[in-house]
Design a protein that fits this description.
One of its GO terms (cellular component) is cytoplasm. The protein is an alpha/beta fold. About 45% of the residues lie in helices and about 15% in strands. The protein has one domain (about 10-259): TIM Barrel, CATH 3.20.20.60. The chain has 12 helices and 8 strands.
Length: about 260
């Protein structure tokens, strides 16, 4: 008798059902060991970053399998808002996707369509061949697939801030993740994520997304600022990266003994 397979809850469901802000870490090294250390440390979610890291589809699949042994919810950030790529990442078993550089509602609608099978969307059908359905191990996957996935889109430009309410209102967008670094750059404030104008843009986005009834999160490696965002109502935050933590710790050791 086949073993019954149930997929875990997606990221949006985890955040919605939590009574506190979900704290996460980037997995940027591609290392399964680093991913396991981070997952076992107690983070609520892990951002497997295929946008700024040297990942192929195989690397992401291996990282998802590693993290699956732990309670942390994996979110895969894809490199670009592309229908074919979204299909591939969903098929390899990424249930929760983050799409970068979404500047308007039309781009958000494109991402939503790619997340779902017809008639709701345009996702190509190959579930029997894919890890997404655990190779046909999930009963009636095709009809239940939309319930198993979640979509987070990134607001990380001045244009996106202006359109935040419209982006958040798109049916099928579950959450908005603000990228202060690119936002600051788009405002002519490269490297100044805590500039008052950037913070004001973040506040504007927070309000627009909450008014739309959607989840809002943000990236902040400055831990005091991360806490301030949580206090301001962020539902989820990313507070560091595996490579950043390793670099900081190893350099501190060298400074202590050789400085």
């Amino acid at each position: 008798m086949p073993f019954p397979v149930e997929l875990p809850d997606n990221f949006a469901k985890h955040v919605t059902h939590s009574d506190s802000a979900q704290v996460g870490l980037f997995i940027s090294s591609g290392s399964e060991t680093n991913a396991e250390i981070a997952a076992s440390a107690g983070f609520d979610w892990l951002l497997i970053d295929a946008e700024h890291s040297p990942y192929g589809l195989g690397t992401v699949t291996s990282l998802l399998r590693t993290v699956a042994a732990y309670p942390a919810t994996p979110v895969v950030r894809i490199p670009v808002n592309d229908t074919v790529l979204i299909k591939q990442y969903l098929d390899l078993g990424a249930q929760s996707l983050m799409v970068p550089m979404v500047h308007n509602a039309e781009q958000a609608e494109k991402a939503v369509a790619a997340m779902h099978y017809p008639p709701r969307g345009v996702r190509g059908i190959g579930a029997a061949l894919a890890r997404s359905s655990r190779f046909n191990g999930v009963d009636d996957y095709l009809n239940k697939a939309s319930e198993t996935v979640s979509l987070t889109v990134q607001v990380e430009s001045a244009e996106a801030v202006e359109n935040a309410a419209e982006i958040a209102a798109v049916d099928g967008v579950d959450a908005i993740f603000i990228g202060p670094s690119d936002l600051a750059a788009s405002m002519g404030l490269l490297g100044q994520q805590q500039h008052p104008d950037v913070l004001a843009a973040v506040d504007t986005t927070f309000k627009a997304v909450r008014d739309a009834g959607k989840l809002v999160g943000i990236n902040a490696f400055n831990l005091e600022q991360a806490q301030a965002y949580i206090d301001a109502g962020a539902s989820f935050v990313c507070v560091g990266a595996d490579v950043q933590q390793l670099a900081s710790a190893t350099r501190a050791l060298v400074e202590k003994f050789k400085g």
